[in-house]
Write a structure and sequence with these properties.
By secondary structure, the protein is mainly α. It has 14 helices and no strands. Helix 4 runs parallel beside helix 6. The longest helix is centred in the first third of the chain and has 61 residues. The model has no long low-confidence stretch (mean pLDDT about 80).
């Protein structure tokens, strides 16, 4: 019992920690974007966006995805408590990071004239791309340091590195943009990369790793597993981006540009609420699952615990989103964007199914089943794309919200079938009860608000928020002593 309580505390603590990091990062991004817009104008923002998107694309292609895939290998080695194995895995990973970083830099230099031509329609930015080539190496090294902290579950250091890096990047960029304007874009991008590397190195150097002597042949051989999984993860991400592109293109061709803008605004608002929860959870969940990936019983237990916390945290957030949608739209955008309310309302039921499939989806990844993971992601994308195209065709913007919930349910059924058949996964009785209650409450709140509209929706949303919030509080307190944790925290402060 004490061990379970400790696990729930760890999950909740990691979620709270990185949820806070996400909030701070979002605020920093808002401030940075505001200053950049004022100091550089639309032209400067356009140039910066094109340079960043091009270098980011090259970095994604040349990094081979090992910064993501290596989390599994480092976590798995860390779970054995074998210092020699840990040191060997980290040494192999670091060498591959240097290789991919140098590969990106060299490729950028060689392709700089064509990158300028393809991106800007001329070769005026060839020199800019040559200078920016170093950022691919710097960024890859920085990502490698963060991956090391992630895999070893040094979560506090990882959080500090992310927040401080973003904050210093903001402080460095504003004076340069004020001083030399558009000409400061390239120097700022380079300085930001150097800053991020120094900060991540400052925290990762505290990690004591046993020195390992490994030949080049063994480095290549042992690193191929990371590369294989990393490439498939990169391809999976590319497929997701391609699906998003196809959906936008379909909306634009069969509907209007206005609908594309409304759809993107709806997604932006939804992600501000739920995105930070999923991002925060993956930071702790993925390495923890990778540690025990050979034991299906433990895997089922960890997935059940993670899913319980996800639902208990997400449900109140979803009710708040449902209750405040018109207000948030008016604050972040204008009244012209109010038609997106229907889209946001229909998204609510689907998010809870997304939480189920999201938790299950990490099992193949943690186990290193790269082909199965890629197949799962690919077929899931086909399901999502099909639902979106049908939904928009018949019901327009509102149909996209319906399609989201339907696709989340179908993907969940598909992923659950895979995990049950392949890994003998099963849900606990406790999770079934938690999900049934919160899904019923969120769906009821959605239907009532959808039917009666606003301003009565504010009142009904508040009532449901009190019910769901109280139930989440009671359950979390029962599982991990949340009330005691908060009291102790307040006393210390």
């Amino acid at each position: 019992m004490a061990e379970k309580e400790s696990t729930y505390k760890q999950i909740f603590k990691a979620t709270s920690l990185f949820g806070g990091v996400q909030v701070i990062s979002i605020l920093i991004a808002i401030v940075r974007n505001k200053f950049v817009a004022i100091l550089l104008g639309t032209t400067g923002v356009g140039i910066m966006s094109l340079l960043q998107s091009t270098t980011n694309l090259l970095s994604t292609l040349t990094s081979l995805g090992i910064s993501s895939s290596a989390v599994r290998d480092i976590s798995e080695a860390n779970g054995t408590n074998d210092t020699k194995r840990i040191g060997r895995v980290i040494t192999v990973f670091r060498r591959w990071v240097w290789f991919t970083g140098i590969l990106g830099t060299v490729l950028t230099i060689v392709m700089s004239p064509w990158l300028s031509q393809w991106t800007f329609g001329n070769r005026d930015y060839t020199t800019a791309f040559i200078f920016l080539s170093c950022t691919l190496l710097l960024s890859e090294l920085s990502s490698g340091q963060i991956t090391l902290l992630h895999g070893l579950q040094k979560l506090k250091d990882m959080a500090k590195a992310n927040v401080i890096g973003s904050a210093i990047g903001l402080v460095v960029s504003i004076p340069i943009y004020y001083w030399i304007g558009v000409k400061g874009i390239v120097p700022t991008m380079i300085l930001s990369s150097i800053t991020a590397l120094l900060i991540s190195w400052n925290y990762s150097r505290k990690v004591q790793v046993e020195h390992s002597v490994i030949t080049t042949k063994d480095t290549i051989k042992e690193g191929l597993g990371m590369v294989k999984l990393g490439i498939l993860m990169t391809l999976s991400s590319f497929i997701s981006y391609f699906v998003a592109y196809l959906v936008n293109a379909f909306i634009n061709r069969t509907g209007s540009v206005d609908d594309v803008g409304l759809y993107q605004a709806g997604w932006s608002i939804t992600n501000k609420y739920i995105g930070m929860v999923f991002t925060a959870m993956v930071t702790d969940y993925y390495p923890r699952l990778s540690k025990i990936n050979h034991d299906n019983v433990q895997v089922s237990e960890v997935v059940n615990q993670q899913t319980e916390i996800a639902i208990l945290i997400l449900s109140p957030i979803l009710i708040i989103l449902l209750s405040t949608a018109p207000i948030v739209i008016n604050v972040l955008y204008t009244s012209d964007f109010l038609p997106v309310v229907k889209f946001i309302q229909w998204v609510i039921p689907g998010v809870l199914f997304m939480a189920l499939s999201w938790s299950l989806g990490f099992i193949p990844l943690a186990k290193g089943d790269s082909k199965l993971y890629f197949l799962k992601e690919s077929l899931s994308s086909v399901i999502v794309l099909s639902c979106y195209l049908i939904g928009y065709h018949f019901k327009g913007l509102e149909g996209l919200g319906i399609a989201y919930s339907v696709s989340c349910f179908l993907v969940y059924l598909y992923v659950k079938w895979i995990c049950k058949r392949k890994y003998n996964f099963h849900y606990s009785h406790e999770l079934r009860k938690i999900f049934a209650f919160h899904f019923m409450m969120c769906t009821a709140a959605f239907l009532i608000t959808y039917i009666i509209g606003y301003p009565w929706g504010y009142l009904t949303g508040t009532v449901f928020l009190l019910i769901v919030g109280w139930q989440s509080w009671k359950t979390l307190d029962k599982k991990m002593g949340l009330k005691k944790i908060i009291k102790n925290k307040l006393k210390r402060n």
